[in-house]
Write a structure and sequence with these properties.
Two copies of one chain form a homodimer. Chain A is α/β, with parallel strands linked by helices. Chain A is built from 13 helices and eleven strands. In chain A, strand 1, helix 2 (about 50-65) and strand 2 (about 70-75) form a beta-alpha-beta unit. In chain A, helix 2 (about 50-65) runs antiparallel to helix 11 (about 265-295), helix 7 crosses helix 12 (about 305-325) and helix 12 (about 305-325) runs antiparallel to helix 13 (about 330-365). At the A-B interface, helix 1, helix 2, helix 5, helix 11 and helix 12 of A face helix 1, helix 2, helix 5, helix 11 and helix 12 of B.
Chain lengths: ~375, ~375
């Protein structure tokens, strides 16, 4: 395991005088915690208390690890930067820091989809060990460096659900003509099977689904989906969301701003982003079971995607990745790096982890 | 999700003058990072670079988040405190901080097994959300407070393997008379099925297994087991290690020492312990697949425990827990709290996560 980390390189030397980035003048003696204020914009609205909540936890943490001196002021999507322009705002220095999902910028380079998580890719734990352990993170660092961004992993939704459907999906045929709110690689894969992908912002999904303008919509999972009320207008809730078997958020920091920080403030960002990732994973794992129970009690009908549907999507996905590899050098580099790692991970996870899970889940189902 | 956390209560107020615990006298102006040196003892030897490595990461992190001022000096098992006396050493203030596994102190109160992870209990992610999200952590805090200890979660081995066997286990009958190096609750469960549990320290297992003094031994998983060389003296490697479907480490801090720290140093410990937990989970997930591949290439024969064996052990486990609940009020309190949470977790995890995993693992197996 390479601790891909400033912990590795920073050593334990004291930072001398106050950094040039300090807002306050240095006092007569060395000041180890200079006062620094940053603007921290998010792609998410405040109502999503787990996604946006991650930004708030980060701000609190940066203050509390620096005796109140490193202050991040958080802004929800649209307050100072539109939700889908976080990448540009950080890259050009409009803000020092931004929270987003890298796959929103898929159009800049498809490699950014990998940073969030590939359809039929690694699960939540596998993705984390790939990023931190395999050297994948360094490749992303190189990519973002070209855009004046220093990147960090920032939270995860874990495996998502497959969305809400007005009618059942019983076969691959049923995908034909389906107007489905879904984006990114999943849309590209599904279009090959006849789906008509729709790009609709979060707040507009409910009325579209209610009126029948669309036939289905995917969002995140039970906890977030329940908030948007999809259960009231679509009875069938499918799983798994194979396009987001894990889905990781991103923290983008303007590289010039980052380099001006005292070393131990840089460490606070690195440690803090990893803390938030852990916090968010746990929060979703804690909230989703309760939300699922409420949804099912309220009449939601859970449905697994038919095996034939999963397999058809899987095979189209592989073709999309092969084609994308011919178009993006960054995508090819990370995809080639990813494949053997994925296979090793799956081989191991099938053994102790999956066998354990299968047994305890089975015994639990017998009790209920 | 309750962020069981000093983040919640600490607020952002500045810590005034240097703490009373500061080793150096306060200078003329307020010193936000006082110099503090602690002794940090471990239950593990330095050779276990993932378990003991967690203590080293923690020491580095505490220094680097405080501009080098909060210094933990790490000691391996036996250097200043015997490996299995960490609890007492922290409790009575011999050292300020210790790394250990709570279930080693099972004899003091069986509730401590829960802190590590119960046989047939929660998996790695479920245990984390239970601890941080459900209020379980607060109950452990109350328990440890009686012993002058402020506790933190500190690392995880993830699902362990079921150990190394000189002969195959084909039925429940094969457990009878089996001399098996295993401890804690697993030993109590297995003894009811005829196993003769053996308590043997890590370094002594290999010769015992080689000579046939014991028939089988469990340790951790591929990465750590390979280091001890068990594959050379026992051909069959069983899974899953149902007694440690997840296995979490503990960080114990002497409460008086903790209370004397500046608030933001307390935060560093909390954030740091969670960082180490994440780091260790990732490191094991990264190392185990490669170690498993090497072991299998070297002739190790993987075997799943027969379903009948798992079920027999599972049923005995439930009886042991019911009996233990009548003997320990702490155990009963946490077990009653645990059961409905476990059931909700399993219900949810079976849906998106497990279905996703099953599919991607299956497709991966077809490729290989």
């Amino acid at each position: 395991m390479q601790l891909r980390s400033f912990l590795k390189s920073a050593g334990m030397g004291a930072v001398g005088a106050a950094s040039a980035a300090s807002v306050l003048p240095a006092p007569a003696i060395a000041q180890s915690n200079p006062e620094i204020k940053w603007r921290f914009t998010s792609s998410f609205p405040k109502s999503l208390d787990t996604l946006y909540g991650g930004a708030e936890v980060m701000a609190k943490l940066c203050a509390e690890l620096t005796d109140g001196k490193f202050q991040l002021r958080t802004f929800a999507a649209g307050e100072i930067v539109p939700g889908l322009q976080v990448f540009d705002a950080v890259s050009n220095g409009t803000v020092e820091m931004g929270q987003t999902a890298a796959y929103y910028y898929f159009g800049k380079d498809p490699v950014m989809a990998f940073d969030t998580g590939l359809p039929f890719g690694l699960n939540t734990r596998e993705h984390a060990s790939w990023i931190y352990g395999s050297g994948a993170f360094q490749i992303f660092r190189e990519f973002y460096a070209e855009h004046n961004i220093t990147n960090f992993v920032f939270g995860t939704t874990n495996a998502q659900m497959g969305g809400w459907y007005r009618k059942e999906i019983k076969s691959v045929e049923d995908l034909k003509g389906l107007k489905f709110r879904v984006g990114g690689f999943a849309g590209q894969i599904l279009i090959r099977l006849g789906v008509v992908p729709q790009q609709i912002a979060g707040g507009d999904i409910y009325p579209a689904l209610e009126k029948g303008t669309i036939d289905a919509a995917e969002w995140v999972g039970p906890y977030d989906d329940e908030k948007l009320g999809f259960n009231k207008v679509a009875p069938f809730y499918y799983y798994p969301g194979w396009w987001e078997g894990s889905s990781y958020g991103a923290l983008f920091v303007n590289t010039k701003s980052f380099n001006e920080l005292p070393k131990h403030y840089q460490n606070v960002i690195e440690i803090g982003s990893r803390y938030v990732t852990d916090w968010m994973r746990c929060k979703y794992d804690h909230e989703n079971p309760q939300a699922l129970r409420r949804l099912v009690a309220g009449g939601t009908q859970l449905r697994p995607f038919p095996r034939a549907v999963l397999e058809a999507c899987y095979h189209e996905a592989q073709k999309v990745y092969d084609e994308t590899s011919t178009k993006s050098a960054w995508f090819k580099r990370i995809y080639d790096h990813f494949k053997p790692y994925r296979d090793d991970q799956h081989t191991w996870m099938r053994v102790a982890e999956h066998t354990y899970d299968r047994f305890i889940f089975d015994m639990s189902a017998r009790r209920s």
